[in-house]
């Protein structure tokens, strides 16, 4: 009997781990759809980058992923990843137009146009509200960024980003619940001194403006974020800061990581023939 009780207790322990596990996140009583916009482009590390992002997003409910390929056509290996996440997605191709920097601006602009012209299809019948987040394919995302921050954005949410802007963390400076300045190294005078990863806007703000990522705006000193948010008619008073409540041990929910390009050993140069691409033994690698 004792043995039986011990075995039973043991299996109960197995069923209910005491260590922390990722929970399938609840939507906190709001039915806001999270619309994530991701520009992406062919490079050796793109498939692993997109795979990590897909694995993260598949833990989040009520989400629509808009992926915009910087190229003439979509890529089957990327589509396969999106299919396997089983989350609703839209995958379109828009090669960067002449005059735009090759940094995802044009792709995000195309996504904004899509969101404005296909709002009801993207929201689906279960959702009246949405939040738009620009999530690049190479960052590192905590699931709580989506469930605890983005989902709750009523106008403009801003939070800390790790490893960005030439420093270890950029964050809004919050006094009495209001953002009074930005704790950043680079260009702190901007109305919104925040990286793309550090904010989300409610869908109604997107729909009430025609702001896009243009090339003419000079206000950000080269950064597109403050231009977009200013063009959306937003002011610092509109900011809802997230993650600042604790005095210390504050957590960072998004990291501006970069995947380095691996050093591929090239075949020997031959004066008459061009260098052949690396051998992939029949496996798919974007070389
Ligand atoms: C930083 C910011 O984090 C970006 O959000 C911002 O757009 C960019 O600076 C900027 O300067 O405008 P960073 O990490 O330096 O981004 O740039 P990437 O991550 O290489 O590119 C941003 C996004 O655009 C990525 O999702 C990337 O896949 C995409 N991209 C980049 C393209 O679609 N095409 C390109 O040729 C390059
Ligand atoms: Mn990046």
From TrEMBL:
Residues annotated as site: Interaction with galactose moiety of substrate glycoprotein: 170, 266
GO terms under biological process: carbohydrate metabolic process; chondroitin sulfate proteoglycan biosynthetic process
InterPro entries in the cross-refs: Glyco_trans_43 (IPR005027), Nucleotide-diphossugar_trans (IPR029044)
Alphabetical UniProt keywords: Glycoprotein, Golgi apparatus, Manganese, Membrane, Metal-binding, Signal-anchor, Transferase, Transmembrane, Transmembrane helix
Pathway the protein takes part in: Protein modification; protein glycosylation
Active-site residues, as the UniProt record annotates them: 225 (proton donor/acceptor)
Cofactor(s) in the UniProt record: Mn(2+)
Main location: Golgi
EC class: transferase
EC number: 2.4.1.135
GO CC term (a single one): Golgi membrane
Keyword flag Transmembrane: yes
Reaction(s) catalysed by this chain's protein: 3-O-(beta-D-galactosyl-(1->3)-beta-D-galactosyl-(1->4)-beta-D-xylosyl)-L-seryl-[protein] + UDP-alpha-D-glucuronate = 3-O-(beta-D-GlcA-(1->3)-beta-D-Gal-(1->3)-beta-D-Gal-(1->4)-beta-D-Xyl)-L-seryl-[protein] + UDP + H(+)
Topology of this chain in the membrane: Single-pass type II membrane protein
Pfam family, one: Glyco_transf_43
Residues that bind Mn(2+): 138
Family recorded in the similarity comment: Belongs to the glycosyltransferase 43 family.
Name this polypeptide is given: Galactosylgalactosylxylosylprotein 3-beta-glucuronosyltransferase
Species name: Caenorhabditis tropicalis
């Amino acid at each position: 009997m004792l043995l039986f009780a011990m075995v039973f207790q043991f299996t109960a322990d197995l069923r209910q781990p005491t260590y922390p596990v990722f929970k399938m996140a609840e939507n906190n009583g709001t039915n806001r759809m999270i619309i994530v916009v991701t520009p992406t482009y062919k490079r050796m590390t793109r498939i692993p980058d997109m795979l990590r992002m897909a694995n993260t997003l598949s833990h989040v409910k009520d989400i629509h992923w808009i992926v915009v390929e910087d190229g003439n056509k979509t890529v089957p290996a990327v589509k396969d990843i999106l299919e396997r996440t089983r989350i609703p997605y839209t995958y379109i191709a828009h090669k960067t137009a002449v005059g735009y920097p090759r940094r995802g601006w044009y792709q995000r602009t195309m996504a904004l146009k899509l969101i404005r012209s296909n709002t009801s299809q993207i929201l689906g019948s279960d959702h009246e509200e949405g939040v738009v987040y620009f999530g690049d394919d190479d960052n590192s995302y905590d699931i709580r960024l989506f469930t605890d921050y983005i989902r709750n954005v009523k106008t403009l949410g801003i939070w800390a980003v790790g490893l960005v802007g030439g420093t270890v963390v950029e964050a809004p400076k919050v006094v009495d619940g209001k953002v009074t300045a930005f704790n950043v190294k680079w260009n702190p005078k901007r109305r919104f001194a925040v990286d793309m990863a550090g904010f989300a806007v409610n869908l109604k703000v997107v729909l009430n403006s025609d702001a896009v990522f243009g090339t003419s705006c000079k206000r950000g000193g080269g950064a597109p974020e403050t231009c977009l948010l200013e063009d959306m008619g937003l002011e610092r008073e509109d900011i809802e800061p997230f993650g600042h409540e604790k005095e210390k041990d504050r957590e960072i929910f998004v990291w501006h990581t970069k995947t380095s390009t691996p050093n591929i050993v090239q075949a020997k140069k031959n004066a008459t023939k061009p260098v052949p691409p690396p051998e992939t033994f029949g496996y798919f690698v974007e070389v």
